[in-house]
């Protein structure tokens, strides 16, 4: 790691938006610690190193406090200039049909682990009055998620949390940015068991473009960014359409068996 290069942490960086955020950081001059809960993080780190950055990889389960502590220990007291809190999990199907252990894992990953990590690193940033935090929320957080109730609820929390934290830190040298993508072409829908749904099988956004939008917003200190025109329209509409109507619309996208033949 070079003393002249800033240091960033990207969670959930083995695939998808997280991997692309790590690439953006490397091209933007950062050295990196990339983290995920699967061994594929080693391959991801090797890909990002090709951009010329020093990249360390860590396998840790950020759904647990112990996993977050493991990440924090891996920092080894270094100054974290940017934290890109991207780790997340999804889960499809009706809430009462879900295995509750899997539902809890979504909550523990998306909410508990994310906020615990931000609390630890955010306090370090506050002590030196400098740093950038990017939180991957979602436009799903604006929509009652029939057949994705836990996931959408967790993203509603993250969207709200990011705006609140930004306000609390507005007079400091720390910026908080919320990246709010729509459906993106990643492993998310396969892992969430949603490949028999309309949203799981339709065309999706490019994760590289989503990550680029998020990285640029973070670097400029913007409060939030919705990636993609279609998603901007959808998020704006969600502010005026009644919640019950939104829930019905979401059913059409996410109910199992809704995939078009």
From TrEMBL:
Q: Which SUPFAM superfamilies does the record cross-reference, listed alphabetically?
A: NAD(P)-binding Rossmann-fold domains
Q: Which Gene3D superfamilies match?
A: NAD(P)-binding Rossmann-like Domain
Q: Does the keyword Oxidoreductase apply?
A: yes
PROSITE patterns on file: ADH_SHORT
The lineage's top-level taxon is Bacteria
Q: Which CDD domains match?
A: SDR_c
Q: Which UniProt keywords apply?
A: Oxidoreductase
* Family stated for the protein in its record: Belongs to the short-chain dehydrogenases/reductases (SDR) family.
Name-wise, this protein is SDR family NAD(P)-dependent oxidoreductase
Q: Which organism is it from?
A: Tardiphaga alba
Please name the taxonomic classification of the source: Bacteria, Pseudomonadati, Pseudomonadota, Alphaproteobacteria, Hyphomicrobiales
